[in-house]
């Protein structure tokens, strides 16, 4: 029992660290880079979609000043969270940034959790899972109703991973294909569907950075959707609410 309690505590600490890094991205985005280049982001994403291990960045203005290692980590999380379909990209391992003396990044080595062939197969599974949910939501005429459908379908597809042991527990693939995830998996799965439906959306964290959920912009209002808590409480208490802040599981 003591061993299990220690393992659970360690896994919760891992989730907290991941979300705290994400908090730095969301609430302190100005610390990332002095020369933010959205074309660089798009170029990197396009190469990640091809599962390229080394990406030439010499034609782009990507420069991390100050604590470069920390900002590189934040940058990786930012790319991943804004692109849930990149679930096969590693959060930390296998990455390396190469730069000139002035700090400009010339090359990025990308880390992956799957081989190219494994990712290709997984992407088909993921695309099918998201498409099925989106097609069901598109039968509804209002964005509010579409959000409700997506919330309910993710609840049906996913169980909370109380073991905190699965490799894909933090991403949308874990939620929609493997059927096991923690809050970040639920949240990125929801974003994947919202993006395809064309519904404006974002993320939010609670005060201590231990829990993540989604927001949607509907009818000029920003509303909260916490699929994780809707699933674990077997209710829709946290669906399209004006305010929301809650603890991690």
Automatic annotation (TrEMBL):
Q: Name one Pfam family in it.
A: Transglut_core
* Domain Transglutaminase-like residues, every copy: 138-221
- Report the superkingdom from the record: Bacteria
What is this protein's name?
A: Transglutaminase-like superfamily protein
